[in-house]
Amino acid sequence: MVARLLAFALSREAAFSDTTVGKRKIEGGQIRRSRVIRDFGDVNAPLEAAFRARLSQAITALRVPPFTLDSLSLELAAHGDGDFYRRHIDTFIGGEKTATDRILTGVYYFHALPRAFTGGELRLFSLRPIEHGGAHLDIEPPCDSLLLFPAWAPHEVLPVSCPEGNFAQSRFAINCWYNGTA
Ligand SMILES: O=C(O)CCC(=O)C(=O)O
Ligand SMILES: [Fe+2]
């Protein structure tokens, strides 16, 4: 799967666009810097099937209440030198609220080997604020791994460093949001 996805990402390099934050396409600016595509062409069906196949296991392991899955939303993000995504949650907030919401976030990681970048860890925060004893966990997901967490959990992508790197050496990640009605 990794070779296929790398080839796919490289073939679509020109179609990647700068990321924005929120449905209203507010300029990401200081919150997020990366490039994404949402059209997966031929790889869409096998990817959706793979993400769907992990859902029941994720619900059990994460101890989230079962929910009705309405749809999946997939996005392929490339983080290159200096890219990041500051602390945020993936559920919709404020005026963006709709009947169906993101319940779980899945992130599948892949990149060229040997890995050319450093940084880019996923930082998961506890709900307790840092000043009140809260903590965080930095996860460095290996190539070809899937990480799942509740979409409401605060998280961050630490800055990626890859000064000599080109697009092919990016930190690639496929975000899969499990949209549902609780
Ligand atoms: O790439 C990651 O590790 C997470 C990305 C993320 O948090 C997002 O796109 O909402
Ligand atoms: Fe996120």
Automatic annotation (TrEMBL):
<dbReference type="InterPro" id="IPR051559">
    <property type="entry name" value="HIF_prolyl_hydroxylases"/>
</dbReference>
<dbReference type="InterPro" id="IPR044862">
    <property type="entry name" value="Pro_4_hyd_alph_FE2OG_OXY"/>
</dbReference>
<protein>
    <submittedName>
        <fullName>Prolyl 4-hydroxylase subunit alpha</fullName>
    </submittedName>
</protein>
<dbReference type="Pfam" id="PF13640">
    <property type="entry name" value="2OG-FeII_Oxy_3"/>
</dbReference>
<keyword id="KW-0479">Metal-binding</keyword>
<dbReference type="InterPro" id="IPR005123">
    <property type="entry name" value="Oxoglu/Fe-dep_dioxygenase_dom"/>
</dbReference>
<feature type="domain" description="Fe2OG dioxygenase">
    <location>
        <begin position="68"/>
        <end position="180"/>
    </location>
</feature>
<keyword id="KW-0223">Dioxygenase</keyword>
<keyword id="KW-0408">Iron</keyword>
<keyword id="KW-0560">Oxidoreductase</keyword>
<keyword id="KW-0847">Vitamin C</keyword>
<dbReference type="InterPro" id="IPR006620">
    <property type="entry name" value="Pro_4_hyd_alph"/>
</dbReference>
